[in-house]
Amino acid sequence: MAALRRALHFVFKVGDRGKTATFYRDVLGMSVLRHEEFEEGCKATCNGPYDGKWSKTMVGFGPEDDHFVAELTYNYGVGEYRLGNDFLGLTLQSSRAISNARRLGWPLSEVGEGVYLAEAPGGYRFYLLDEEQPQKDPVQKVSLAVSDLQCSTHYWSTLLGMQVLERSSEKKSVLLAFTDSQCKLELCDVGGPVDHGTAFGRIAFSCPREQLPEIEALMKKENQKILTPLVSLDTPGKATVEVVILADPDGHEICFVGDEAFRQLSAMDPNGNALLDKAMEADKSNEWFAKHNKQKASA
């Protein structure tokens, strides 16, 4: 049953959409898969605890059906977010991204043999492996901080059904996935509390629609946190999806979405890139704040 579950994306809150677009498109070499604008906050707080105008941009190395991608959420009135220690990094294999960073003068530091660290605007860490970008998805793993590795491993493997692929007592980490061919989840024990700041993200998975009530019922039975019980989310002109939002023992947000409708919603939009550029051009919020001698909110 868990083998039918699929790792989809990680949600990043972004304060500077222009610089962020440069990083994902020009440095990493990802494509804009779709871009959507919303007039009010999401019922499942996809954009965080904000109720104003926001946008969602999906970027990745290929279609969402078989690639792990990034969801960039931009709240129009918020200029920056405080980073915690919860998100430890996303690892991808691409010597092309390393050469792009060098060519564009994007800061890069070597942190291991053939491993380079680049930071996205907002301070999010990306570990780039200096090997040829594979034909399949170059994104290998997402790393999250936990305060009690045993407790978190139980949650993700026993309750959510992920397979434990590797354990490292030296790194105090566990590597998990629903299937070996998907992007992996690495849990790393940081030996203390996990701070989510205000930049906290969310990891999303899909499952057959019929499993959503079962996941919710199991979490209730196990006295685990359900942030948003089963709810339908509308995207103007696109498929309506159903989601359940959970939180793990350290408060990492987890979205499960019904796979059938999500595959329709996540179809690549050939106009995605143009829609993002148009939205950025039309966004006069920076000018408005400058004209009124004000600064955008820091969340």
From TrEMBL:
Keywords from the UniProt entry: Mitochondrion, Phosphoprotein, Repeat
Compartments reported by the entry: Mitochondrion
Gene3D superfamilies associated with the record: 2,3-Dihydroxybiphenyl 1,2-Dioxygenase, domain 1 (3.10.180.10)
Keyword Protease applies: no
Stored Pfam families: GLOD4_C, GLOD4_N, Glyoxalase
SUPFAM superfamilies for this protein: Glyoxalase/Bleomycin resistance protein/Dihydroxybiphenyl dioxygenase
Gene Ontology cellular-component annotations: mitochondrion
Keyword Transmembrane helix (UniProt): no
Transmembrane segments: none
Domain VOC: from-to ranges: 6-131, 138-259
Main location: mitochondrion
Subunit structure: Interacts with NUDT9.
PANTHER family membership: GLYOXALASE DOMAIN-CONTAINING PROTEIN 4 (PTHR46466:SF1)
Similarity section: Belongs to the glyoxalase I family.
UniProt protein name: Glyoxalase domain-containing protein 4
Species, as recorded: Scleropages formosus (Asian bonytongue)
